[in-house]
Amino acid sequence: MEVRSNYGDVRNDMVHTLLATGDVLSVRHSLAEELGDSHERTVDVEATDILRYLPPGIGREDVRTKPGDLPTEIWCIVLDAIDDPSTLFALASTCKLLMALAKQTRAILDPYSPWSVFTDLTDVQRLQHQVQETPLVSHFLMSIKIPAHSMIRFFYDFSGRLKALEMIDIIGGGDILPPLPRPILRAAHRFRNVTKLMISDVAFWSFADFSRLVCALDSLVELELRQVSWQRNEGRSLVDEPYAASLILRDIEIREAVSMSRYERLLGAPKLCESLTSLRLFGRIGVFCAFKSNPPDPLVPEIHETFTPSTSPIPRRTANIRIHPDPDADVEWGTQRQWLRECVDLLDSALASRAWCLSDIIVILHDCDDELVNIFRVEPLPFRTLRDRGILKVRNCKNLDMWNERWECEEEIIISDTSR
Q: Of 219-233, 349-363, 402-416, where does mean pLDDT reach its minimum?
């Protein structure tokens, strides 16, 4: 028999009285009045039913059935009102019965623990009810998958409440979202521990809506986009937007089979040139970009680190770009070539800015067939801006060893010219 009961008519002020004053007698008297005869019948229920929640190695002997001279039901009500993990841990450290009750509460919270993976879309209304019933849920929920049509309600209802939430996955169905009201951006700003955002098959009203939502999450370091679009192109490049100054992403993954060029304004965020370490583009082909910082030159004074429009920054980073076709992809050659051209133009435009402080860019054509390699041999050649700067190298390679960063270079297609 399960001991835990849920008395919806028991007022929370009883619990607060106990926690604040320790007045056991008044709480017991009030509880008896509220529960009446049903309380008298259940107050002496044996506690052995919940002792199965005791950790292995903890014996069942010498169990206090009424800690603090309170029946089990009252402690269950106290546990239901706890909204802080440290309080739950402290309570579990007092005696065996309360340890078992705390472990029982943890069993209720297990679906929201870090090792649980959400495979189904979350019903936002149901989650709201669960958080109200068990406040500790807000301290254990670390990842969530929500439908796009519930996104506005989710940000409103849980703004500042899900303390442990680190990942949000937004799944759309192809319908265009209505314009996002400004208050929703302020609500999203209060999800201060969210470090990863995934958006799939979502059509925003405008680029401004999309970019403002991404930038509202101050702690965001990982962004994954799959077939994300917007109906209106209104909104400037993020390099010109003050609200994008706080966007410091380390990892971006974009999956787009149609138009990769639409993401050019996103890659213009002013601090990406310093923070981004990985950029992955998938569509007809896989393009993997890794950015590394070079150690500062001790012979160069630190004052030269800053620059004005009339001066150039000291090159501090290198970029390795690996282009690898998907051998299982059933894609027409013409479509594949067009997608690669568009992807290369996107990188050429984004990385050409001197704010990136790039000293070398190495492009590896990894096991590409002759048709793809010829794109880099025949006019018009790709990476026009980067070639003009003389920092680009393109190599056709086979037998790539990713772990040791070694490969067999069959051909140097473009050789950098640093004298320019």
A: 402-416
Question: What does the mean pLDDT of the chain come to?
Answer: 76
For the entire predicted model, the pTM comes to 0.71
CA distance 78 to 408: 67
* 317 Cα distance to chain centroid: 26
* Cα–Cα nearest to 258, from 197, 201, 209: 201
Range of the domain at 323: 277-420
pLDDT in tens, 404-419: 566 667 778 876 554 4
| Exposure of 315 in the CB half-sphere (CA atoms within 13 A) | 12
**Do 84 and 119 share a domain, yes or no?**
no
| Token couple for 60 | 């069942």
Domain end, chosen from 95, 110, 125, is at 110
Angle at 55 between CA 51 and CA 59, to 5 degrees: 60
286 and 400 inside one domain: yes
d(CA 162, CA 232): 32
The tokens for 42 are: 């259940």
Q: Are residues 289 and 182 in the same domain?
A: no
Residue 401 has a CB neighbour count (10 Å cut-off) of 9
- Domains: count for the chain: 3
